[in-house]
Each structure stands twice: as structure tokens, then as C-alpha cells.
Amino acid sequence: MSETPQCPQCSSPYAYEDRDQYVCPECGHEWPQDGNAEEAQESTVTDANGNPLADGDTVTVIKDLKVKGSSSVVKVGTKVKNIRLVDGDHDIDCKIDGIGAMKLKSQFVKKA
């Protein structure tokens, strides 16, 4: 019987096997048993239509978005150029003309 590895995200020793992957009961992280944990963590960011996004792409906002801490709104159809992909809940880092630096969720944009 092989020894189960520690969770790559939280280093928990309590990971277990589930079919063809390992699961961490403490943080809920799942990774493949074939040892490609780094490849599994590199998930592709997609827009609202499922198109993959990359650094430097131009996207269009598909929904009016309120700017937190301000009374301004990012209107539907606003083009955002030269995006940067980052980890986290808001996975797009960008600058919007007239508003400034912002973080956006990829589910509210489409590739232009």
C-alpha cells in the first residue's frame, strides 16, 4: 500500500484517495494521483461564453457593474484592453478609462 501524499495547498496529512485523484478533507482541494499537481492547479480562465482568456487580451463587459466605494458604474459594452490574469475570486486585473485600476470577474466579460 502506497503512502498518501500531503495536500499541496494546506499541507494536511489527512488526504485520501478517491477514484483517480487525492482529496483533502480539511480544505477540499483535489488533485490527480499521477503526480501532476502543478498542471492541475493551472486552470484556464474563461469568459462568459467559455472562450479561454490570456494576458493582454481585450474584453467587453456584458453587465452593468457597480464600483465598490464609489457611485460610478462600468456600463455594458465597455471595452477593457490589455488585461492581466491573476489568482483569486476576481481573476482579471485591468485599467478602465475614466475609472482606473480594477479587478473583474471573468464571468462578467466576453472576449472582444
Automatic annotation (TrEMBL):
Domain Protein YjdM N-terminal: 4-32
Residues covered by the Protein YjdM C-terminal domain: 45-112
SUPFAM superfamilies: Prokaryotic SH3-related domain, Zinc beta-ribbon
UniProt region (Disordered), positions on chain: 28-55
Similarity comment: family membership: Belongs to the YjdM family.
PANTHER family: PROTEIN YJDM, PROTEIN YJDM-RELATED
Protein name in UniProt: Alkylphosphonate utilization protein
The organism's taxonomic lineage, starting at the top: Bacteria, Pseudomonadati, Pseudomonadota, Gammaproteobacteria, Cellvibrionales
